[in-house]
Design goal:
Helices cover about 30% and strands about 25% of the residues. It is an alpha+beta fold.
């Protein structure tokens, strides 16, 4: 019976915590995966005390806007950024996601 090597490491969430993707990159990649349209990212670091980045994007319908918002919320939670503050999700005509350093507007 062969012994397993001593130095094996699995990619656990705790092990990957140090390699966390930057918040702005995570959100932009998730928007791209969700097929959000006309995405514009504005760097407001040093210009506003609210956030470092503001992103404005569009969905094709109210259902798509809601789906994009849900994907962003899920991606933030799974990546260890916690639960963002969200406004407008019940109606989905305009959703604001406040992720701390990034504020996202989905129209």
């Amino acid at each position: 019976m062969a012994a397993l090597p001593e130095n094996t490491s699995a990619a656990t969430p705790a092990a990957m915590a140090g390699a966390q993707k930057p918040l702005i990159d995570l959100i932009l990649d998730t928007l791209d995966d969700a097929k959000a349209e006309e995405t514009v990212s504005v760097d407001i670091a040093g210009k506003s005390s609210l956030a470092d980045h503001m992103i404005v994007t569009s969905g094709r319908s109210q259902r798509h806007v809601g789906a994009v918002a849900d994907q962003i919320i899920t991606a933030l939670r799974e990546s260890g950024y916690g639960k963002p503050r969200v406004e407008g999700l019940p109606h989905c005509d305009w959703v604001l996601v406040d992720a701390g350093d990034v504020i996202l507007h989905i129209f």
